[in-house]
Amino acid sequence: MKKETIVADIDTQTMTNICQFVVKNFGLVGINSRNNLLQTPLHIASCIGNQNLVKLLIDFGADISAVDRNIENAIHLAVKYGNSNCLEALVSKCSDNNALNALNINGLSPLHLCVECGHESAHD
């Protein structure tokens, strides 16, 4: 099994439980740490559609406006992958309109991506 697929193969409840354990017992070190694609844990949770993990990370101080190598924040990725449950959690916790209107490397905001990807429920 490739390293990249391991995260996708773990069910979301197990992943959430593991993250809760780590954050609770080892503190917030690395809550905004980045992988080789400059993604934070919040980016990854948004990509895979784990709403509980998105909420947990935000509650523990994850930066919603942090951008990856494509200058996309977690909101961009939730839209791109059609994860409206994560998008709802991100938007409800987002106090920074700059994150909602941020442009990615292609000059697209999350709303632009929403229209481009055809995710009607995300922009309603």
Automatic annotation (TrEMBL):
One of its GO terms (biological process) is regulation of gene expression. InterPro entries: Ankyrin_rpt, Ankyrin_rpt-contain_sf. It is found in: Target cell membrane. Its main location: membrane. Keywords: ANK repeat, Exocytosis, Membrane, Neurotoxin, Presynaptic neurotoxin, Repeat, Target cell membrane, Target membrane, Toxin. GO terms for cellular component: host cell presynaptic membrane; nucleus; other organism cell membrane. The keyword Membrane applies. ANK repeats lie at residues 37-69. Pfam families: Ank_2 (PF12796). The keyword 4Fe-4S does not apply. This is Ankyrin repeat protein.
